[in-house]
């Protein structure tokens, strides 16, 4: 009887000591669950701001590549049309004598089609360069030239459009000084040159592209009819600007 009592007592001891051993395993599984919920709730807060910042940078830099390509092409087309328009002064008997000439709205309907087209292309190209200047000024980080260059470029584009409209309506003739005739385009070019130099100083534009742009501007200014060549050189010089801004800076 003493042995059976001892065995029964030992059996109770073993069952009582084994049963509570399950409780720590259950608590271990419970403590791991809050860690999983903590990791899942922290993921959305870190992903959304970066995605919105990336999309905002892409939207803001979409206009610069298009303008850097479109403005020189419009200037090239203006040079070609103006060159063809000047052929009637060389040989009026060749069938081109009724294509050019400026003289108001009557000339636009009769024999000034090429002249009007050349004026429209010039105004559009200068406006494109003014818009490009404004968009590039936003990229400047250290030099405060965004607002002055934007105002100067806008004034130059407005002056170019006003001179063309005055010639088209007959309010201005060919006897106006060349400073007034081409002064608006020169002001827009100076504003663009200032922004390009500032970008080169900040390391955001290659120096070789800046030198090539200076050569293109020189070809445009020379009175030898090298406008189309100068516009093509300017197009090559502005090729680095056709890359998105996010690819240039981090």
Overview of this structure, please?
This protein is an all-alpha fold and 250 residues long. It has two domains: 50 residues; 188 residues. 75% of the residues lie in helices and 0% in strands. It is built from ten helices and no strands. α3 packs antiparallel against α5, α3 runs antiparallel to α9 and α8 packs antiparallel against α9. Keywords: Membrane, Transmembrane, Transmembrane helix.
Secondary structure: elements and pairs:
Blueprint lengths: L1 H17 L3 H39 L2 H23 L19 H5 L3 H26 L7 H24 L8 H24 L5 H15 L5 H11 L7 H4 L2
Instruction: Count the beta strands.
Output: 0
Structural class: mainly alpha
List the uncertain runs: 1-11, 13-21, 23-61, 93-111
Q: Compute the gyration radius: what is it?
A: 36 Å
In short:
With 250 residues, this protein is mainly alpha-helical.
Features:
single chain, about 250 residues, mainly alpha, 2 domains, 10 helices, globular, disordered N terminus
């Amino acid at each position: 009887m003493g042995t059976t009592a001892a065995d029964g007592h030992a059996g109770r001891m073993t069952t009582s000591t084994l049963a509570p051993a399950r409780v720590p395993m259950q608590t271990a599984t419970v403590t791991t669950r809050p860690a999983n919920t903590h990791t899942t709730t922290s993921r959305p807060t870190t992903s959304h701001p970066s995605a919105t910042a990336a999309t905002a940078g892409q939207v803001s830099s979409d206009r610069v590549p298009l303008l850097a390509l479109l403005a020189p092409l419009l200037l090239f087309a203006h040079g070609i049309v103006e060159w063809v328009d000047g052929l009637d002064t060389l040989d009026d008997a060749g069938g081109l004598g009724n294509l050019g000439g400026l003289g108001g709205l009557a000339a636009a309907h009769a024999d000034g089609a090429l002249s009007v087209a050349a004026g429209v292309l010039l105004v559009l190209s200068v406006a494109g360069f003014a818009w490009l200047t404004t968009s590039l000024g936003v990229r400047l980080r250290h030099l405060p030239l965004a607002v002055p260059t934007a105002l100067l470029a806008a004034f130059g584009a407005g002056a170019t459009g006003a001179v063309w409209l005055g010639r088209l309506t007959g309010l201005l003739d060919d006897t106006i000084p060349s400073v007034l005739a081409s002064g608006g385009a020169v002001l827009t070019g100076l504003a663009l040159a200032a922004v390009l130099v500032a970008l080169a100083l900040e390391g955001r534009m290659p120096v070789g592209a800046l030198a090539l742009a200076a050569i293109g501007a020189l070809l445009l200014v020379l009175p030898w009819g090298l406008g189309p060549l100068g516009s093509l050189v300017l197009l090559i010089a502005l090729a680095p600007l056709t890359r998105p801004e996010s690819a240039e800076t981090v």
